Amino acid sequence: MSDARISLTVDGTQIQALEGQSVIQACDAAGVYVPRLCYHPDLPPAGHCRVCSCRINGRINSACVTPVSQGMVVENDTPALNSDRRVIIEMLFVEGYHLCPTCEKSGDCELQALGYRLGMAAPTLPYLWPQRELDATHPEIVLDRNRCILCSRCIRASRYEDGKSVFGFEGRGIHMRLTVDGSALGDTAMAAADKAAHVCPVGCILIKRTGFRTPSGHHRFDKAPIGSDIEAVRSVPKT
Ligand code: SF4
Ligand code: SF4
Ligand code: FES
């Protein structure tokens, strides 16, 4: 990334960006929230989930993997794009096993919070109710694959931050599953202090003996909708 400043337009408002930034990085810095799931600011982007899809110079592209360019025109907060994002969120809900009232991630879960922010009511697609392997073999960490949305954050964190490559994917399409580098998580080099143990956007990777400690109503997204922290630093007035 260089210090060279360029300007682009997001939803009709001009913002400044650094050359080399992605669209989502530039929007974050300007206080414009682009919905996202697989993107994490500390990890290399993967472009998996497509929730951050924007219309960029007239074409639909993922904001997390598209570099900014001078004069770029970005549409982000439009009814059509938010409707597409809502459908993606809905598909992730029905494809996994998500019983929010019983989940210790409820209120801190990015999938749930995006459902609220994008106005998802009851899913209109049929639930698949998968039966995936739950792995409690690690002394400090539990892995509930039924809630995994295959975002790959844990894979990238383990590889690039922890230097371990504990996680991977196997299979394709609806049969894709999260795998571990061993017969079970307890056989791997995973530690509770690893970055990979703390980047999961949903309730799939959980630290044992810490669940349900925060009372209902005091979780991150109980207090403010997802994206509010980014919008709080908005440097340009909302149109
Ligand atoms: S992981 Fe999120 S969406 Fe899934 S059950 Fe838990 S709170 Fe609900
Ligand atoms: S375990 Fe969590 S971080 Fe890893 S791929 Fe599944 S949802 Fe993403
Ligand atoms: S956040 Fe950009 S593709 Fe997932």
Helix/sheet category: alpha+beta
Count of domain modules: 2
CATH architecture of the largest domain: 2-Layer Sandwich
Q: Please count the beta strands (DSSP E, at least 2 residues each).
A: 10
Give the fraction of residues assigned to helices. Answer: 10-25%
What binds here, in terms of ligands, is: iron/sulfur cluster, FE2/S2 (inorganic) cluster
Mean pLDDT rating:
95
Assign an overall shape.
Answer: globular
Major sheet strand order: 2-1-5-3-4
Q: Give the C-level CATH assignment of the largest domain.
A: Alpha Beta
In short:
The protein has helices spanning 23-30, 79-95, 110-117, 153-161, 220-223, 228-231; strands at residues 5-10, 13-18, 53-56, 59-62, 73-75, 134-135, 141-144, 167-170, 177-180, 205-207. With 239 residues, the chain is α+β, with helices and mostly antiparallel strands.
Commentary on this structure:
This protein is of the alpha+beta class and 239 residues long. The protein folds into two domains: 5-77, Ubiquitin-like (UB roll) (Roll); 85-209, Alpha-Beta Plaits. It is built from six helices and ten strands, in the order E-E-H-E-E-E-H-H-E-E-H-E-E-E-H-H. A five-stranded mixed β-sheet has the order 2-1-5-3-4, covered by helices on one side. A three-stranded antiparallel β-sheet has the order 6-7-10, with no helix packed on it. It has a two-stranded antiparallel ribbon with strand order 8-9. The longest helix is centred in the middle third of the chain and has 17 residues, at 79-95. It is globular, with a radius of gyration of 18 Å. The two termini are 29 Å apart. Bound molecules: iron/sulfur cluster (SF4) (2 copies) and FE2/S2 (inorganic) cluster. One iron/sulfur cluster is lined by residues 148-154, 178, 199-200, 202, 204-205.
